[in-house]
Structure formats: structure tokens, C-alpha cells
Specification:
Layout (H helix, E strand, L loop, with lengths): L1 E2 L2 E2 L3 E3 L6 E4 L10 E4 L2 H9 L6 H18 L3 H12 L6 H14 L7 H38 L2 E5 L16 H8 L4 E6 L6 H13 L3 E4 L4 H6 L5 E4 L3 E3 L4 E4 L2 H10 L4 E4 L5 E2 L5 H4 L8 H4 E5 L5 E5 L12 E4 L6 E4 L2 E3 L3 H7 L1 H7 L1
Parallel strand pairs: 6-7, 6-9, 7-8, 9-12, 10-13, 12-17
Antiparallel strand pairs: 1-2, 3-4, 4-5, 10-11, 11-16, 14-15, 17-18
Helix pairs in contact: 1-2, 2-3, 2-4, 2-5, 3-4, 4-5, 5-6
């Protein structure tokens, strides 16, 4: 996608493969800052502190982190230890474990002297694969938008959190159909949930939609149901950090409430779900998906730009008030109209997922 009119990915390697460059997403939308990751510790911090975030991008970043770590210790012990450290950075998004599993499967059988170079090459393959998957999700989701456009003209879409190109290597998941629709000349408008407490919608989705020239409005998290009641939303598209084998969807906190409002108002609720985010080992999302509990400070404090241009962090919650900060919730499959995958739009059901991705079932068994 584009930043100031120039094409860019969210992560890219140095020519000499000694480091990797990322966009520091904690600095957006007020500052565009890129930073280099050159050690395993750099990658751990980047993932844990959400300089990179979004399930697909976390997975690719971890793959590159493992490749960098193997330059210092490519032994079996080193490979296992680096994988464990990266896996511990974020618990909910399954792409992290998926990417590390793919990397280990390719590397353990290689001579130790060849592992570092092979790991870097494999990480690059996973980055390109992510772009291809998101591109296909965009093409498949475009059909949904085009059908509404034929009937209504302008299409209004609501999305939650940031499942844009910033959450992936390029295109994004939930935004890929939007960008494809824009390319196709479809008139569309996007309602962007602010997505408290980290405001990924207001800070990230709005920023990237603005960069791409897509019509949009930021709304407070609790406004979506009201807009749906008044016929303002034609389609909801969200991303996913982990989808179960039965079609339950784990996404940023507040997604479940949007699904309930969509169901009550007859608004189609679709999830852009790359296969790397599907966990075929879990069947009950509410019971079994680990939900990350993040720092209370994300709720108690907010960062922004003052009218005179200064960046400040202020406290918005009274001293002494206790805070709960679950980062994700689970939307049951019964509320999902369909999963937009790289292999087509499929029902959020166990048999449909098994048919679409039979090779993943073999890996689980």
C-alpha cells in the first residue's frame, strides 16, 4: 500500500540480511517512524510492545526474529530457545505459533551451518505468502461489496480495530476487499470504530484509509449499533487473531458486541480469515482460546497531540480505580455470516473449514 504516495510494506529486510526494518505502529498517526530490529531481543520488544501488531504481521515478524537469532546460535538448542522466547511474547494470535512451527519444520532437518541463511529465505517466503493470501482475500471479499453496490450504489462498511495493511505485510485482511473495491471504482464509505483502549481504529485504520484516499469516518465504539439501527451499515468486515476449527472467531475486544448488533439489525457480519489464523486444534473458542490481559495503563492513560503540537500522555481514569483490560473477545460462529479466506468465502462451520483446508487437518492429527 502507500505512505505519502509511495508503495511500502510493513516489514522489509536489509539487503545484507543483518536486520529487519518495521514501521513503529505505536507512533502512528502523529509520527511516521521506522526502526530496525537486529537482535532477538529487539524482535521480542517489538512484538510485545506492539510496535508490530496484527496476527499476520506478528507471525512474519517472529519468523524474521528466529532467522536473526540463528545467526548467533543455529544449534538445535538455539533454535528451540529462540522459538520459545518469541512464542511467549503474545498469547492470543495463533499466527505467531503457526509461523514458528513452519520455520522449525523446515530448519530442524538442515545442517547447522545452513540454517541461518535458510531461515532468512523462509521468512521472506512467509512474508510473500502473507501478501498473496491477503490479495486473494481481497479478491474474494470484493464480490460481497460489488453485489451490494449493484443494488444500492454506495456501500457503507463498518470495521473494528485495525485489520488493515498495518496488521499484515500488505493489503491487510478486512481492508483488502475495501482496497480492491476502491480499485474497481466502487463508491464506498467506511465507518471506523475507534477501538479502545489502544485506539487502533482511530489511530491506525483511519490513518491508512486516509493514505489510500478511502472515504471514512471515525466513530466511538458504542455508535455502531445505533448506525446499524438507522440503516447506515450495509456490511461489517472484521479481522481475526484466532479462528477455531468450528468457526468461532477471536478478535479485538468489542467485536462480539458488533456481531450481536449486526445480527439484531440484519446486517451481514463477515470475518476476513487467512488460513494462518485458523487453529484446527481448538473447537470451543469461548472456553479454550487464551485471552491476553494487557496493562491497566492502556486504559488509564491516553496519548495524543495537543492543539499547540505537543505529544502528551494524560491520565483519564481516577487514581485508585481498578482496571480490567482483556484485549480480545470471542464471537460464536452462529453470529458469523461467513469467513472470507484465500480459498473463497466459506461458512463458519467445522465441515466447511475441514473441506477448504484439508492439509491443515493432517498437521493437527
Amino acid at each position: 500500500m502507500r505512505v505519502d504516495g509511495k508503495p511500502l510494506r510493513t516489514i522489509w529486510p536489509a539487503a545484507d540480511e543483518s536486520r529487519v526494518t518495521i514501521i513503529d505502529q505505536t507512533r502512528l498517526p502523529h509520527e511516521f517512524v521506522i526502526c530496525e530490529l537486529a537482535t532477538l531481543g529487539d524482535f521480542e520488544v517489538a512484538i510485545r510492545e506492539m510496535k508490530v501488531r496484527g496476527a499476520p504481521l506478528i507471525g512474519v515478524t517472529a519468523a524474521y526474529g528466529l532467522a536473526i537469532a540463528l545467526r548467533d546460535d543455529p544449534s538445535d538448542t538455539g533454535l528451540a530457545a529462540a522459538s520459545a522466547r518469541l512464542l511467549a511474547t503474545r498469547p492470543t494470535a495463533v499466527n505467531l505459533a503457526w509461523a514458528l512451527d513452519v520455520m522449525r519444520a523446515d530448519l530442524f532437518g538442515l545442517p547447522i551451518a545452513e540454517r541461518a541463511a535458510a531461515a532468512f529465505a523462509k521468512a521472506g517466503e512467509l512474508a510473500d505468502l502473507d501478501v498473496a493470501i491477503c490479495d486473494a482475500i481481497g479478491a474474494n471479499g470484493l464480490a460481497l461489496i460489488a453485489k451490494i453496490a449493484q443494488r444500492k450504489g454506495r456501500v457503507s462498511i463498518l470495521t473494528h480495530c485495525n485489520a488493515g495493511w498495518l496488521c499484515a505485510v500488505d493489503w491487510g485482511t478486512a481492508t483488502a476487499p475495501i482496497y480492491k473495491a476502491q480499485e474497481a471504482g466502487i463508491d464506498l464509505h467506511v465507518y471506523v470504530d475507534e477501538t479502545r483502549p489502544r485506539n487502533q481504529g482511530a489511530s491506525l485504520t483511519a490513518w491508512e484509509l486516509g493514505q489510500q484516499g478511502v472515504s471514512h469516518q471515525v466513530i466511538v465504539d458504542n455508535a455502531g449499533g445505533h448506525i446499524m439501527q438507522h440503516g447506515g451499515v450495509d456490511l461489517v468486515i472484521v479481522g481475526t487473531d484466532r479462528t477455531t476449527a468450528t468457526g468461532d472467531v477471536c478478535n479485538k475486544i468489542g467485536t462480539y458486541l458488533k456481531a450481536l448488533a449486526a445480527k439484531d439489525n440484519g446486517v451481514p457480519f463477515y470475518v476476513a480469515a487467512p488460513s494462518s489464523s485458523i487453529d484446527f486444534a481448538i473447537f470451543d473458542g469461548v472456553r479454550d482460546i487464551p485471552i491476553e490481559e494487557r496493562s491497566a495503563r492502556e486504559v488509564t492513560h491516553m496519548r495524543g497531540r495537543t492543539d499547540d503540537g505537543r505529544l502528551e500522555t494524560v491520565r483519564i481514569v481516577p487514581e485508585g480505580s481498578r482496571v480490567a483490560n482483556p484485549a480480545f473477545d470471542v464471537t460464536p460462529a452462529r453470529l458469523v455470516s461467513g469467513l472470507i479466506t484465500e480459498r473463497g468465502i466459506i461458512p463458519a462451520r467445522r465441515e466447511a473449514l475441514a473441506t477448504a483446508f484439508p492439509e491443515r487437518l493432517v498437521l493437527v492429527e
